[in-house]
Amino acid sequence: MADSDDPKSLTIASRQQPASADRVPCKECPLIHCRGLSAPDEGQRAWIEAFKSSEARYVRGEQVLRQGVRATRLFTVLEGVLIRYRLLEDGRRQIVNFLFPGDLVGLQAAFEAELTHSVEAMTDVRLCVFPRDRFFDLAVSHPKLSFDLTWMAAREEAALEDHLVSLGQRNAQERLAYLAVFLVQRGAATGVSREGTLRLTVTQSQIADMLGLSLVHTNRSLQALRRLKLVDWTLSTISVHDMEAARSFAQMDGDPYIPRPYI
Amino acid sequence: MADSDDPKSLTIASRQQPASADRVPCKECPLIHCRGLSAPDEGQRAWIEAFKSSEARYVRGEQVLRQGVRATRLFTVLEGVLIRYRLLEDGRRQIVNFLFPGDLVGLQAAFEAELTHSVEAMTDVRLCVFPRDRFFDLAVSHPKLSFDLTWMAAREEAALEDHLVSLGQRNAQERLAYLAVFLVQRGAATGVSREGTLRLTVTQSQIADMLGLSLVHTNRSLQALRRLKLVDWTLSTISVHDMEAARSFAQMDGDPYIPRPYI
DNA sequence: TCGGCGCGATGTCAAATGACACTGCCCGGT
DNA sequence: ACCGGGCAGTGTCATTTGACATCGCGCCGA
């Protein structure tokens, strides 16, 4: 079920991450070009630049944050995709959400609480690092950023609400269609994918752990969707031929496009 | 499935809610006495008082917010319990969360987005009303409150994460035990329930719609839990005899007590 | 006093989903 | 060339969960 406990990924995950010397200045932030993300203005960007302490890189499979610890750093995704998941004591794993460029990683750390989930890189990633202890300064000195932060938290909450509806009300095929559409659109909005297709390595085991299905049933349902020509999801590629058909198959409503602020 | 479309509740729900003349001054806010809630200080309370525009009352079954509209007001729960749910086009309903005193209702409204869920009163409730358009002032003029707001959003997100794990990884009985423990503890923290028992009218149909189970299966699983002497859940009362046993049965970890700020 | 209604409970059967054991394929290391 | 590991796919059978029909009970209003 949880495939994160194989020896290799553990040893990789536990080595300390050196702060990379080179860092992108915020005024040249590559995320500016993402439709789907609304960039902060000049003043805010200066503030963010000062707040940002460094950059970090992780390779696919590495753990960025570990459930149960009190983290001292927050991150923001500059490049790549990650997952956020929780482990139960008996080894069951629930993947809670995927993280794309612009997303905030580890907001819980800001409130000196223990993390309730782990975060793992799905691709090689670059993250912006922010110190937790200066977090409160943010709200004081730049209200608009603080507002954006609340916005981001609310947005993430809405995403979880969507997933919750999926797990609670949709059957296996609908869930798969929903997740495929969700990921492809997230990818499109953050510059990771072309229209209708997302190149991202996701194993069926990970899909199963996200959707609350068994591995075998996930496999069979994926095949069914492939036969229906709705979603073609392979190890390295998710492609949705007819977005509207897939959306209606999965009973998705609401507007897919709401530009999000980021930090 | 969705029982909210019976004619009676609809007519009740659609009448306009007169702003009640009498309102509790924030300095006498009854929530001060809730362990489980950390009260704002004097200065903050003054600011909240100025921000608060009125109070509203709803009776059990009334709709407070409706999915798909752009609300102009935010609420805070002063007294009572509500549910937040989403309807799918074919009538399936997913209850997303329960709202207890101190909780924020309709944060999405702050970002001029369409609401993705409806909110309905489970008991007679009293709400504090805040205008949406003065919301941004909050962040500017009182950073600590803005910080608390982010905190609350993050807390709600964590709760949804818990529910997501439940729907994704737990079987019917575990989900029921989890939900019972969750509700009783939420009730205890907000002064609604005595230790181990919560008096709150929840139909099995509502439980089913929260946990993604069929009505019949919910019924049978509840009976099973009753036979196991873990949870006794009737229409009007939830009682958990042995909290620790129930928590471990449902594979719940983490600290149940984190005092939350409120507004 | 009668009927309607909301809610819980049950019996029976069907469908969805899971568990387990096994195969084939690809790929990288030696 | 061989081995081992990760991953998708399959066959078979068990378990969980859902669908549908029905009953009992308490409540309330005509």
Structural account:
The structure is a homodimer of 263-residue chains. With 263 residues, chain A is α+β, with helices and mostly antiparallel strands. Residues 1-20 of chain A have low confidence and may be disordered. The longest helix of chain A has 27 residues, at 143-169. Chain A folds into 2 domains: 3-143, Sandwich (Jelly Rolls); 161-261, Winged helix-like DNA-binding domain superfamily/Winged helix DNA-binding domain (Arc Repressor Mutant, subunit A, Orthogonal Bundle), CATH 1.10.10.10. In chain A, a hairpin with a 5-residue loop joins strand 5 and strand 6. In chain A, 37% of the residues lie in helices and 21% in strands. The first copy, chain A, is globular and about 55 Å long. At the A-B interface, strand 6, helix 3, helix 4 and helix 6 of A face strand 6, helix 3, helix 4 and helix 6 of B. The structure holds a DNA duplex (30 and 30 nucleotides).
Strand order of the largest sheet of chain A: 2-9-4-7
Assign the CATH architecture of the largest domain in chain A. Sandwich
State Rg of chain A.
Answer: 18 Å
CATH topology of the largest domain in chain A: Jelly Rolls
Give the largest interface: A-B, 49 and 49 residues
Helix/strand class of chain A: alpha+beta
| Number of separate strands of chain A | 13
CATH class assignment of the largest domain in chain A: Mainly Beta
- Uncertain stretches of chain A: 1-20
Seen as an oligomer or otherwise, the chain set is homodimer
Overall pLDDT level of chain A: 88
How far from one another are the termini of chain A? 34 Å
Q: What percent of the residues of chain A sit in helical stretches (DSSP H or I)? A: 25-40%
Shape of chain A: globular
Could you give the order of the helices and strands of chain A? HEHEEEEEEEEHHHEHHEEHE
Describe the main β-sheet of chain A briefly: 4 strands, antiparallel
- What is the CATH superfamily classification of the largest domain in chain A? Jelly Rolls
Strand content of chain A: 15-25%
Helix count of chain A?
8
